[in-house]
Amino acid sequence: MIINNNLELTPKIAKMLKDGKVGAIATDTVYGLVCDASNKIAIDKIVNLKNRDLNKSFVIFAKNLDFFSKIAKIHDNIKKIANIFWPGALTIVAKKQINFAEFIDKNISNNQNIALRIPDNSFFIKLLDEFNGFLVVTSANISKKDPALNVKQIKRYFANNLDFIVEGSDFSSCASTIVEFEDDRIKILRSGDIKKQELLKYL
């Protein structure tokens, strides 16, 4: 099912996700495969569709920084860069809260950290507000293949195995920058459009 990215359709998509559906939605960088972060069956479907390494952690999307504090320890340096660069192409790796598994599946991450992001995409932001929970988002591709940048590529990768695809713009952007903090020092885990020098201005 292909769905237009009309903001009025976000309640429909949110309900589908709450019902355990798996789909592809445009972010601000590439298309992502998306599901409810508390639904293990849906998460397992994404793992199988992508032929994804079981030891690889997922990125979690949510509507705001306060919401993320339910599952992750949000210290001052995280707040500083999140308040500047979110929504945007920045993924922040933080320590899990002890009770994180009350909100998301415990197998989302296989270590003490969890990756967080809010995308700069009006449809996705509205969807996150409507969903009012946590979403697993991972690039729409078979593992080790290039991320899908349009609906044609998504269909080539996944045929009819997704419950829905939300149409968006074609992309040319690279994936998000991923960072974490070691003590008070910022570390780049994956380079993207947001560079370390730009981040350091706000720390």
Report on the architecture of this protein.
There is one protein chain. This protein is α/β, with parallel strands linked by helices. The protein has a single domain, classed as DHBP synthase (Alpha-Beta Complex). The chain has 7 helices and 10 strands. It has helices spanning 10-18, 40-50, 65-68, 76-85, 122-131, 151-158, 196-200, and strands at residues 2-3, 23-26, 31-36, 59-61, 90-95, 113-117, 135-139, 164-166, 177-182, 185-190. It has a 10-stranded mixed beta sheet, sandwiched between helices. A hairpin with a 4-residue loop joins β2 and β3 (31-36). The longest helix has 11 residues, at 40-50.
Short description:
This protein is of the alpha/beta class and 203 residues long. 28% of the residues lie in helices and 23% in strands.
Number of helical segments with 4 or more residues: 7
What's the CATH topology name?
DHBP synthase
Query: For the residues shown, what is the average pLDDT?
Result: 93
Give the strand tally: 10
How many domains comprise the coordinates?
A: 1
End-to-end CA span? 44 Å
Task: List segments where confidence is low: pLDDT < 50 over at least 5 consecutive residues.
Answer: none
- Percentage beta strand: 15-25%
The strand line-up of the biggest sheet is 1-8-2-3-7-4-6-5-9-10
What does the main sheet amount to?
10 strands, mixed
Sequence of secondary-structure elements: EHEEHEHHEEHEHEEEH
Helices and strands: which structural class?
Answer: alpha/beta
CATH architecture level-2 label: Alpha-Beta Complex
Q: Find the CATH superfamily.
A: DHBP synthase
Q: What percent of the residues sit in helical stretches (DSSP H or I)?
A: 25-40%
Computed Rg = 16 Å
